[in-house]
């Protein structure tokens, strides 16, 4: 659950200092004990006071030209620059015990991003001085004043980066308004097309919501310049009234929000006069609490609201937290969220059951899944029930593990009242011991025969009607189910059934500074090119379902490829094995619409499988609830990018992904390109237009270069004027994207994991 | 000088094979000897023939569905995929000696970028097979067929990258048409503004020249996906007729162009019937020969032109080479180009005369500069001539080295007929020995007094009138001239003169795959953040002098900052030294217009200095010829980027650069952001517009966030509707850039060299 802090302004401290009952206490110590009594975990107090502001202003701002003792002041300023230090009466705290449970606010009048080089330079020296002092007093975190001048946000960020380098341990939290109210209209966040001729926005007219990304923009620039330093965090300022639409606020869920600045002025009074938040703020708080931020309440003692007094504010936020869907799900037994507690955003190397023999404890964890095996039993039951030919049906469980599917198969057989026999194949010698035990004690020779060996090589006494396997990974094929079933299909009858009968891989582009830092943390460059299994938590899916300005974009989550079993008319060896693995290579090129500016850190990978008929398994976010609600066995795949890719609002992201194979292994390679739609008048050629438009039909008929280049008439005479050349263009080369729209390429990633250099998939 | 190769088509080889005078020769061996006789260095021959094409097509293209023995063919295809190999009669060469002086052409019918996954997969296997065979025969380089399908260029590139990994040593050269004639109009390359309402381009109408960047675009995507592999090069195909405007072709000068494909059909006949090239092609050849490409002439035996025969083509190109400005300059003694032979694009760590004591040989190299010392003598002469007060003038040479400036000072004194005395200060004990020798043998006590020590600490007997120094680096201040002269100014009279009196640093954005690979080659990450001194050669300056669509862009080469000497009314210690080095910090934020798409690899750094009055020194490309022609002492600075930054046509590049200092060192930090102008209707807020517009005046008055956030009325009620908020916007917030234009941020680099981590400048 989140912590709560109480903000004490300078006036509050002054007021406390004037109280005659202070005794041994300093004003700040008294503030801290008062706050604790009021149920807060900490206080948030300005580090310096007016005296320091006055001195710094005299030294660094007031123009010496106008002062008589100009040179004297400049001398003092230089003396300060060479040895920056406070006088005792310029700071609000000076003892270790004062700094406990206290979050210092750095002087908010420091002009860290003024356009005046010299003032900015001195502000940076002062910032270093204040942070060094806070660090001396063992403060764990300091809150920095917000950037205010976008043209100098780079200088602001560079100064902070220098502080992160010179001040050890301490966390620096940049205070940023959640958005810029001056630029927002309430309502849904869908952006108007850049190419619809919208009325030019003006200071007097309303403006669409994308523009409230500008404060996130500044944050993104700052943290990028600071190299995603893990000690750089956010103090998100909720002073501005929140719009009802949340989608423009979602990007904050993917950022290191450590503090929420929530002033009493952001609350309204309900019918009874108690402080409550607006709908927009309520839903945002409910979302953001999953990051467990420290909530800094400000102005709660000012009696802004007639009822409830100081405690009412924190009580209300606690109430919101209790009604947060994320928090509730995490507290409900049987949900993935609950099952995954402690695993959020934690990178796991995917299992490699083919290469490694799993431990019994691993089998046990997965056997706990109430949904997966229920669905398998259903699928087997329907397959048996609908099996056309009368008489005995033979089943084979390929990869029986400790036997859960065998047990379910027997249940299904019983329910279906069919006569049937089950072969159970397993290559893990240790699990095979467990199988033998269950075979003797539960199943018996009449119903089950155990076979020890690799399903790709071992011989089965007879061909079977139904082949049952559970070889799926988070991305469907990523644990080599296709390759294994190629082997197992040897002992499936031509008209036999495979359960699963097919599976599909899906991806969606995501942003997550947490996951980006996690992948970098290992210091191993390969870790930036390795897919992981992750319970995604502090992330934001960047795509939406809009077709995009160009009209060529797919849905928010898109299909990469699928596999079907059994394979139809394949060329095989006498042993019934494929001669090569070529048929299991795949490639996908997908285009996503990115409605709001964001940073791409990688892709979420999901799978959906058809077990039999209408019975399936899915971790596709939009469909898992219908197909396999509360299934626990698979977290999504996280496919990382080595370097973040910045995506402007309304850009279009094209992702190329390959499943590749050689004799030793199977692996994925991927890269991405970003495009921005602009009016065709800005771009200069029909070819440019339709060739840069991903998946444009005209591209299908391939090269137009070759004919042009190879036709001698084009080049036989330099006098040939080029307008004739353009006439040679086949007409279908124009307008492949929506009329009037062109896509300009703006950036590209590297090719990731070439040659499977960091491949975790071995044959 | 470039090499020349002769292209033999398959027909040519067949024809040769039918000759009865072959004797021991194979057709290819005969072709090679014929070519050598005709004055060529090598031949360029297809590696495979029609037999191979037929087999591959049958196995991989023809649809088995239609063939009776469908499965048989699929079996054979699988057999080939599992062990790809040639039959002897499918290839044109088979012996080592045949492959000597031969450049194999990979089968150009391989559909490496078809949209059909399966055909593409088989084409890649065939490509691997052909390259492996060429490598077996020790071919040094193979030429790959051009990409033809932009939608699959990623797959084409991934396949090449896989080959680079699996085939050792061999260079793979991608054949790319220099541009796409179908998309070009002749004439100047200035692009129309994306926001002028140009008539929408269509297949029938003409189209502006940016679009001929598309073949470069493809190349850029390919080499980016191949990670700038140094074994990936370009075979630039000059088949298309070249436009007169060259600016759109300049980007090729920054790429690894190893071959020029030049068919006889690209030549026209001159009055006498001899083959010559068009104006556009002539000037491009003259430029590109500086990269010393191998020129592959094709079709020269087809008698396309009535006069001159086969030799005429090569002769003509050799003639162009002789008249190439770059080549001529390199051959003219006394030019920088000649002086720098062998140093082109070679990275040198800048000198650090303050930290290191230079070697005598280093002094000697620089003393050879005929121009630098002449200009110093001129400056001193004019300074003395115009010196107001009569009587003796005292000079001080701060950093006398081996004495060249002392000698020039004495010459200037003689010419000026002034009575004068020279103090010579030097801290290098070794150079000081040379000084003593010259003092005894040439100068004598009457004219010169030597002083041994650091100019920042040593005492000089009297204050001097004129302070002379040569402490400048390629970037002006980068060898710490400002810091040194701060020290030396102690012994300059208040109204004294400093020679130089000022100097300015300039930068321009550049593209150079060579320099990018050079900086990466060291494998030391710091090398990617260290400025180097480089004789820039295979580069392209990406900016132009256009103000840009937004109207906020500066010129092609822009000023960062300057330094003036002596400093006016500075605060100093009793010893006359500054208390801190704060006054020598600088920062610059510059915006460049990028007319054509390109990749930013770093920045060229230049300096210009005023020695005295109208006498100066400059390596600013536009002004060096007037100010200090043929000066040899300084190559430009190269300020690298860690990762290339892609810039679309008509984008705007904002560069932030800082000169920073602490007690130990001085260093630079830098980063860049790219923006794309779009019509305002596409972007969603007046604030967005003017705050993202670099250097927009409105930004000067700083924050609009603070007022908005702090004004209680904004937040006191959630019922406040936001249109009112927008009304609060000060009117000057609209239209800061040119009417109707907005800038959308599209990408950003990291902050480079933070904290001077790879600083090469020590105090």
UniProtKB/TrEMBL annotation, chains A, B:
<keyword id="KW-0949">S-adenosyl-L-methionine</keyword>
<dbReference type="InterPro" id="IPR035247">
    <property type="entry name" value="PRMT5_TIM"/>
</dbReference>
<dbReference type="GO" id="GO:0032259">
    <property type="term" value="P:methylation"/>
</dbReference>
<feature type="region of interest" description="Disordered">
    <location>
        <begin position="187"/>
        <end position="214"/>
    </location>
</feature>
<feature type="binding site">
    <location>
        <begin position="454"/>
        <end position="455"/>
    </location>
    <ligand>
        <name>S-adenosyl-L-methionine</name>
    </ligand>
</feature>
<feature type="site" description="Critical for specifying symmetric addition of methyl groups">
    <location>
        <position position="366"/>
    </location>
</feature>
<dbReference type="Pfam" id="PF17286">
    <property type="entry name" value="PRMT5_C"/>
</dbReference>
<comment type="similarity">
    <text>Belongs to the class I-like SAM-binding methyltransferase superfamily.</text>
</comment>
<keyword id="KW-0489">Methyltransferase</keyword>
<feature type="domain" description="PRMT5 TIM barrel">
    <location>
        <begin position="39"/>
        <end position="322"/>
    </location>
</feature>
<dbReference type="InterPro" id="IPR025799">
    <property type="entry name" value="Arg_MeTrfase"/>
</dbReference>
<dbReference type="Pfam" id="PF05185">
    <property type="entry name" value="PRMT5"/>
</dbReference>
<dbReference type="InterPro" id="IPR029063">
    <property type="entry name" value="SAM-dependent_MTases_sf"/>
</dbReference>
<feature type="compositionally biased region" description="Low complexity">
    <location>
        <begin position="188"/>
        <end position="202"/>
    </location>
</feature>
<dbReference type="InterPro" id="IPR035248">
    <property type="entry name" value="PRMT5_C"/>
</dbReference>
<dbReference type="InterPro" id="IPR007857">
    <property type="entry name" value="Arg_MeTrfase_PRMT5"/>
</dbReference>
<feature type="domain" description="PRMT5 oligomerisation">
    <location>
        <begin position="502"/>
        <end position="761"/>
    </location>
</feature>
<dbReference type="GO" id="GO:0005634">
    <property type="term" value="C:nucleus"/>
</dbReference>
<feature type="active site" description="Proton donor/acceptor">
    <location>
        <position position="470"/>
    </location>
</feature>
<feature type="compositionally biased region" description="Polar residues">
    <location>
        <begin position="203"/>
        <end position="214"/>
    </location>
</feature>
<keyword id="KW-0808">Transferase</keyword>
<dbReference type="GO" id="GO:0005829">
    <property type="term" value="C:cytosol"/>
</dbReference>
<protein>
    <recommendedName>
        <fullName>Protein arginine N-methyltransferase</fullName>
    </recommendedName>
</protein>
<feature type="binding site">
    <location>
        <begin position="372"/>
        <end position="373"/>
    </location>
    <ligand>
        <name>S-adenosyl-L-methionine</name>
    </ligand>
</feature>
<feature type="active site" description="Proton donor/acceptor">
    <location>
        <position position="479"/>
    </location>
</feature>
<dbReference type="InterPro" id="IPR035075">
    <property type="entry name" value="PRMT5"/>
</dbReference>
<dbReference type="Pfam" id="PF17285">
    <property type="entry name" value="PRMT5_TIM"/>
</dbReference>
<feature type="domain" description="PRMT5 arginine-N-methyltransferase">
    <location>
        <begin position="337"/>
        <end position="499"/>
    </location>
</feature>
<dbReference type="GO" id="GO:0016274">
    <property type="term" value="F:protein-arginine N-methyltransferase activity"/>
</dbReference>
<feature type="binding site">
    <location>
        <position position="426"/>
    </location>
    <ligand>
        <name>S-adenosyl-L-methionine</name>
    </ligand>
</feature>
<dbReference type="GO" id="GO:0006355">
    <property type="term" value="P:regulation of DNA-templated transcription"/>
</dbReference>
<feature type="binding site">
    <location>
        <position position="363"/>
    </location>
    <ligand>
        <name>S-adenosyl-L-methionine</name>
    </ligand>
</feature>
């Amino acid at each position: 659950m989140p912590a709560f802090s109480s903000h004490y302004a300078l006036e509050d401290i002054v007021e406390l200092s004037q109280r005659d009952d202070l005794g041994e206490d300093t004003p700040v110590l008294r503030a801290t004990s008062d706050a604790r009594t009021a149920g807060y975990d900490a206080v948030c107090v300005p580090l310096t006071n007016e005296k320091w502001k006055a001195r710094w202003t005299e030294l660094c701002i007031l123009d010496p030209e106008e002062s008589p003792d100009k040179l004297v002041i400049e001398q003092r300023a230089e003396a300060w620059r060479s040895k920056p230090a406070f006088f005792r009466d310029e700071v609000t705290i000076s003892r270790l015990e004062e700094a406990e449970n206290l979050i210092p606010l750095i002087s908010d009048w420091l002009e860290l991003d003024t356009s005046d080089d010299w003032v900015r330079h001195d502000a940076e020296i002062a910032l270093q001085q204040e942070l060094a002092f806070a660090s001396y007093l063992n403060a764990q975190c300091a809150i920095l004043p917000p950037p205010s001048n976008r043209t100098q946000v780079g200088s602001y960020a560079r100064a902070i980066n220098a502080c992160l380098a010179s001040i050890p341990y301490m966390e620096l939290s940049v205070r940023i308004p959640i958005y810029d109210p001056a630029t927002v209209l309430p309502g849904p966040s869908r952006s108007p097309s850049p190419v619809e001729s919208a009325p030019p926005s003006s200071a007097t007219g309303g403006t669409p919501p994308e523009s409230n990304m500008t404060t996130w923009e500044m944050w993104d620039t700052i943290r990028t310049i600071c190299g995603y330093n893990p000690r750089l965090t956010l103090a998100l300022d909720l002073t501005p009234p929140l719009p009802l639409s949340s989608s423009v606020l979602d990007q904050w869920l993917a950022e290191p929000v450590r503090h929420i600045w929530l002033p009493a002025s952001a609350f309204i009074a309900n019918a009874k006069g108690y402080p409550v938040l607006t709908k927009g703020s309520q839903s945002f708080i409910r979302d953001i609490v999953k990051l467990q931020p420290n909530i800094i309440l400000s102005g709660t003692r000012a009696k802004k609201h007639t009822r409830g007094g100081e405690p009412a504010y924190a009580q209300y936020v606690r109430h919101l937290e209790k009604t947060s869907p994320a928090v509730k799900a995490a507290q409900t037994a049987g949900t993935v969220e609950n099952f995954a507690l402690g695993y959020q955003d934690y990178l796991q190397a995917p299992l490699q059951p083919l290469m490694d023999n799993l431990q019994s404890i691993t089998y046990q964890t997965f056997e706990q899944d109430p949904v997966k095996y229920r669905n398998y039993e259903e699928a087997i039951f329907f397959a048996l029930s609908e099996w056309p030919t009368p008489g005995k049906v033979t089943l084979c469980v390929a990869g029986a593990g400790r036997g859960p599917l065998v047990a379910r198969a027997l249940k299904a057989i019983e329910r279906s009242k069919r006569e049937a026999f089950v072969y159970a194949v397993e290559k893990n010698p240790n699990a095979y011991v467990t199988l033998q035990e269950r075979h003797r004690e539960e199943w018996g020779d009449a119903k089950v025969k155990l076979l020890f060996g690799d399903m790709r090589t071992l011989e089965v006494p007879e061909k079977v009607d139904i082949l049952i396997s559970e070889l799926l990974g988070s991305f469907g094929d990523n644990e080599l189910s296709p390759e294994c079933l190629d082997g197992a299909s040897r002992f499936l009858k031509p008209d036999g059934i495979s359960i699963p009968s097919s599976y599909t891989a899906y991806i969606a582009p995501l942003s997550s500074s947490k996951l980006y830092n996690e992948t970098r943390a290992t210091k191993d460059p390969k870790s930036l090119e390795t897919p992981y299994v992750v319970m995604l938590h502090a992330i934001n899916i960047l795509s939406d379902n809009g077709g995009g300005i160009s009209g060529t974009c797919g849905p928010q989550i898109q299909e990469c490829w699928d596999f079907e079993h059994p394979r139809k008319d394949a060329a095989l060896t006498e042993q019934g094995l494929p001669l090569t693995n070529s048929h299991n290579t795949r490639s996908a090129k997908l285009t996503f619409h990115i409605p709001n500016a964001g940073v791409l850190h990688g892709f979420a990978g999901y799978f959906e499988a058809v077990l039999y008929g209408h019975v399936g398994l899915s971790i596709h976010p939009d469909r898992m609830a219908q197909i396999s609600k509360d299934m626990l066995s698979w977290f999504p795949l996280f496919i990382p990018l080595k370097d973040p890719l910045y995506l402007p609002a309304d850009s279009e992201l094209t992702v190329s992904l390959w499943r590749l194979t050689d004799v030793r292994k199977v692996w994925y390679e991927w890269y991405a390109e970003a495009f921005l739609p602009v009016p065709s008048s800005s771009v200069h050629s029909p070819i440019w237009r339709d060739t840069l438009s991903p998946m444009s039909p005209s591209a299908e008929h391939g090269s137009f270069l070759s004919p042009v280049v190879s036709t001698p008439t084009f080049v036989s005479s330099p006098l040939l004027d080029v307008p004739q050349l353009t006439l040679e263009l086949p007409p279908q080369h124009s307008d492949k994207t929506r009329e009037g729209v062109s896509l300009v390429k703006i950036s590209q990633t590297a090719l990731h994991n070439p040659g499977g250099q960091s491949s975790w998939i071995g044959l």
